[in-house]
Amino acid sequence: MEIQLTINDEPTSAEVGPDDDLATVLRRNGYTGVKCGCDGGVCGASKVFVNDEVRMACGVDARDADDAEIETIESLGSQDDLHPIQEAFVDHFAVQCGFCIPGMIIEAKSLLADNPDPSEAEVREAIDDNLCRCTGYQKPVEAILDAADRLRDDRSVAADGGPEAGPTNGADDGDTDD
Amino acid sequence: MTDEPTDPKPDGGTASQPTTEEPDDFEEHPLEWDEPANNDKAPDERKSVSQPAEKFDDRKLVTGEAKYTADYEERFPDLAHAQVVRSEVSHGRVTAIDTDAAEAMDGVHAVLTPWSDEVPDAKYTSAGQSYPEPSPWDMNVLNEHVRYVGDPVAAVAAEDRETAAAAANAVEVEYEEYDHVVDPEEAFDEDAPQLFDQDEVENEIVGHDYDRNRMSNIEGEIGDVDAALDRDDVHVHETEWETIRQSHAQIEKHTSLAYTDEDDRTVLITSTQVPNHTRRQLAHLFDIPIRDVRVKKPRVGGGFGGKQAMVVEPIPLALSLAADRPVIYEASRDEEFGAMRSRHPMKVRARTAVTDDGEIEAIDLYALSNTGAYGSHGMTVAGNVGSKPMPLYSKVPNARFEADIVHTNTPQTGAMRGYGAPQGTLALEGHLDEVARDLDLDPIEFRRDHYMEVGDLDEIAGMMGGEGAERRIRSCGLDECIERGKAAIGWDDIDQPEEDHLHRGVGMALSAQGTGVAGDELGAAQIMMNEDGSFHLQVGGVDIGTGADTAFIQIAAEVLGCDEDDIIVKSSDTDNTPFDYGAYASSTTYISGMAVKKAAEDAKERILDWASRMLDEPAGNLETEDGEVYSEETGDSVTIEDVGYESVYGHDDREHILGKGTHSTEESPPPFAAQFADVTVDERTGEFEVHKLAVAVDCGVAINPGMAEGQIEGANHMSYEMAVSEGVTVDDEGRAEVSDFDEYGLPSASETPPIESILVETHEPTGPFGAKSVAEVPTNTVPPALSNAVREAVGVRINEMPITAEKIKAKLDER
Ligand code: FES
Ligand code: FES
Description:
The complex is a heterodimer of chains A (178) and B (815). Chain A has helices at 22-28, 84-91, 101-114, 120-126, 138-160, and strands at 2-7, 10-15, 47-50, 53-56, 69-71. With 178 residues, chain A is α+β, with helices and mostly antiparallel strands. Chain B has 815 residues and is α+β, with helices and mostly antiparallel strands. In chain B, 24% of the residues lie in helices and 22% in strands. In chain B, helix 9 packs parallel to helix 10 and helix 14 (588-615) crosses helix 15 (640-649). The interface between A and B is large, with 61 and 62 residues. Bound molecules: FE2/S2 (inorganic) cluster (2 copies). One FE2/S2 (inorganic) cluster sits between chains A (95-101, 132-135) and B (251, 302, 545).
């Protein structure tokens, strides 16, 4: 069947089979930043926003995504203009192979939207179902804590109407030409 | 490829058959190393090396734009998907396979059985090692004689995953079942079920005895251990240790895409650590000229040794030949746990002879290694149980190591980060802790009296025979590792909890590894200059997520005096990048990095030659920095870009500036780690909480400190898992009981204690800008440090991994 959905602000339609999960459909449509590391619903690599909620895309029946708003890693910054969370991951050497990272960044974005000043324990709790084999979590946790600072700074500058105000740092810049 | 059994060569450091040769002359290992002056730079002279250069692929990784193997799917419109039919019996023979139903399904392009034309008959090993291969050729791509639940017996390719899965389900396999054996000690019995007939193996390894399921036996000794154990002025201590079957659990599953290109060449895009070995292995197995096989490595989502093996590649290749179209095979996570590779579970016995005043007269280790159904890396991993940990105590005069490596009807094992050293380090470091307690010695001072220091000739590393394994120690930061690790954990200042039932303890362990396989590595690189002053760096060295490509860029930029952004790195495409043994044995920065350094120096020499003509200054007066070539005498300069244009468009003379470097060495300097663990145990329940891990590592000069810390923390996390998690358990049929991450104990973010990584800088004169390895040594140390910490806290010893509350409680109850 054909479903209608909005991916990173782009209205689009997709042909889906009865067994397709959302991760498969997104990947087939070029959103290969959505990764698959398990047999479904466990590793966190396929996390995306579905109607503003973080979901493991591999666990969402594609037909249930009809009419949904999807946001994938591709909706955050671009290579030239990273989102502050992405920037923090780069600056903290929190990325090794990178396979788990899109899912972790999506989860971090959700956490920081709800809780702009999390404790270290809250960060660890938030990414508890984002499995990473490479980093030992130390640097990703540091990166997310630093990203929280960066986002708070951005917000206070924006509130002051400072020179950096406005849609800075590539937040929510669409970059989906993958 | 010869059909003759080849002589197994040492790999992974030292293991091989006992040698009858005399030990190398000490003079062959001079302390003075003929180090080029430019290799030893003071910290403030370094422009790129040991700076926090941004990891070059990070931006595409954090934006999701990086391409891993599975992301190439969309480029192949007629791509077929593979599924493998795996044995459901632990041991038996496939008597018939009915493929009719599968073949009749719509969208099925090929169904292969062990008897299909496209499936090679040849025996091989999946171990991606040097050549001749030091692992037995004991498996087939699809197997008639199956030896574990999960052995591949048939494969299908179909237009999509679902169809492939349905077709695989429709394949009917009949078996004649044989008796099986799961326990390695039982497997060793004369009357145990036998996994291999002698004629089912080629390229057998030293010490094999297939009547007893033994694929290899190795031993080595220096001095006279039995005489030392018999002395009446020594205490003989004996302890036994056991380790888990750990999964690599890299988050990207084994994935491989095979096709034939428009030039009729066989191409693999594949998630591998060993592109050149894979090319050779595929060429031999499928009887294709090496030149007609191309192996391309895209971004790789972790390897840890699991991809130092040609685990899946032959299957999509055979299917693509049969289906006459590109085929991708992506293992499931279930297959990752049950049918890919894992760390060899081992039992290790440690014995020492120690005098009253704490002199260690002898160390004797014995390992029984369970290699599972096949023998890949069996002998070499077992060799490293002794040859990595024992040399740490190179001042001990008598040392012996022996290992038996036995087959069982359980999933396959292979190379895994640490490569035998984690098993040996648990035994030795746990054992020494017990001895120190018994003799009332300080555990650190006791070790310090025996561990290696600069200038020592390490003969223990050479005791298993093999060329060049004996080595001179030219850098050693152990003292500083210990001091800084102690400070980080608060060693001298541990507060006990107020509650009477809670007890806190700190434990420590030391470790040494190697840097590459001594005498058995090769790396190569070339650099092409562009007229705008940028460079293409083509290197065989394999970045599997470690950051190697970035380290290569930093090394080249340091030599060339240019910005990191001016270097475009391309690694690991066997058609377009020079040869490399691959990413294993902690060799990449040291071996491939040195090749990069030599290539950059070669290019720099040509740059200086051109600049000398342009500036009319002798090349000897010239140096490069910040993108310029300047005269140290006159201060005159040209930009590297000017040289780039002049060299290709010059009026009088022209040259494309190309640098090449190739590196191979007999050296394998040890990096060192001092691990500390801080734990509180509840004596009522045995439950424990690890507050912190601290680990200080001497990796020489860290080319990129942030990346090096990341390696340490990731390795320590993996090591922590070895200490507290069950790994892949098997049932009494040998079947893996773990099928997905929720059943496997990969410690999550909140289950992992904070890890403090500490870099202790030394200078290793044989390495590029003083570097030696970092990625493996911190994989070895948490199990003994945590076992020692628990012992300190509540006085009980857990020898058998994992350390669990139940085991602690049981031991407490026994007292
Ligand atoms: S693939 Fe979706 S959570 Fe693992
Ligand atoms: S960076 Fe490799 S799995 Fe997280």
